[in-house]
Design goal:
Elements (H helix, E strand, L loop, with lengths): L3 H14 L7 E4 L20 E7 L2 E6 L3 E5 L4 E7 L14 E7 L2 E7 L7 E5 L6 H4 L12 H8 L6 H6 L9 H11 L12 H22 L7 H8 L18 E5 L2 E5 L1 H5 L5
Organism: Microbacterium arthrosphaerae
InterPro entries: FPG_cat, FPG_N, H2TH_FPG, Ribosomal_uS13-like_H2TH, Znf_DNA_glyclase/AP_lyase, Znf_FPG/IleRS
Cofactor: Zn(2+)
């Protein structure tokens, strides 16, 4: 699942490479991805891209008139082919393109690797016209994000903290992988309810959230967009590391499935040495 560090790197790449280019052609290969049927992507032909910005896990291509918002969903991503044709640099087993755009000599492909279409394309006047963006909570990547914002997101709720970290209406941009990394750094169990956190634990969790997200953005910036997923997974300490040794204490990292979700965690660092 794309999360804020990789999506931010993607948006910065597009802001640099796509800005100033005119959309010469649009080819939609999967019409289920179109979420604004009254304003199809074909209407973008002739418009120019002026920039690109991230909203949580969404990318907005800012146009001279309106915007194209790409909701990356669970398995969505983009491919960039400078001076080539669609799919030219892609491996045979690469995710299929759902739509392609000719940007004055470069081809931008919007892809989805899932067995069902989770990616969405919205042609809108402003990004806030996309319902999911309008409902986004505060973003830990933003410099103005404060402990007060974090406390409001937790809200003292009797809800597992891992679920809250991934709840986009509470905190924007964090998904399954980075929530595992945040909880490990903060030494907090993924099943702890927000209401049970003491002030020291909440402060550790706040600092871990800000540090994890911002450090990852710094590390991903400048990485070629085709390599961002691999760079993300290579940097994980516990997520996707079931059976390996914790880099902090040496205990075995375990996997937990609960309430339809999964988590990787260290029993010693996060639960007093007892497996969940």
């Amino acid at each position: 699942m794309p999360e804020s560090p990789e999506v931010e790197a993607l948006a910065r790449f597009l802001a640099e490479e796509a800005a100033g280019r005119e959309i010469a052609a649009v080819d939609v290969l999967e019409f289920r991805a179109i979420k604004t049927r009254g304003a199809p992507p074909s209407g973008l032909i002739g418009r120019s891209i002026t920039g690109a910005v991230r909203h949580g896990k969404h990318v907005e291509l800012v146009l001279d008139t309106g915007s194209l918002v790409v909701s990356l969903g669970r398995h969505g991503w983009m491919r960039w082919n400078e001076g080539g044709s669609a799919g030219e640099e892609s491996a045979a087993d690469a995710p299929p393109a759902l739509a392609t755009m000719d940007l004055s000599g470069a081809i931008l492909e919007v892809t989805d690797a899932g067995s069902w279409v989770s990616l969405g394309l919205f042609v809108v006047a402003t990004a806030d016209d996309v319902p999911a963006i309008a409902k986004l909570g505060p973003d830990p990547a933003v410099e103005g994000f404060t402990r007060h914002d974090f406390d409001n997101a937790l809200g003292g709720r009797r809800k597992q903290i891992k679920a809250i970290l991934q709840e986009q209406e509470s905190l924007a941009g964090i998904g399954n992988a980075y929530s595992d990394e945040i909880l490990h750094l903060a030494r907090v169990s993924p099943v702890t309810h927000a209401a049970r956190l003491g002030d020291d634990e909440t402060e550790r969790l706040y600092q871990a959230t800000v540090t994890t997200v911002r450090d990852a953005i710094a590390a991903r910036t400048g990485v070629p967009i085709a390599e961002l997923k691999a760079a993300k997974m290579a940097a994980m300490r516990v997520h996707g590391r079931t059976g390996e040794s914790c880099p902090v204490c040496g205990d075995t990292i375990r996997d937990l499935t609960f309430a339809g979700a999964s988590a990787q965690y260290c029993p010693t660092c996060q639960n007093g040495g007892a497996p969940l």
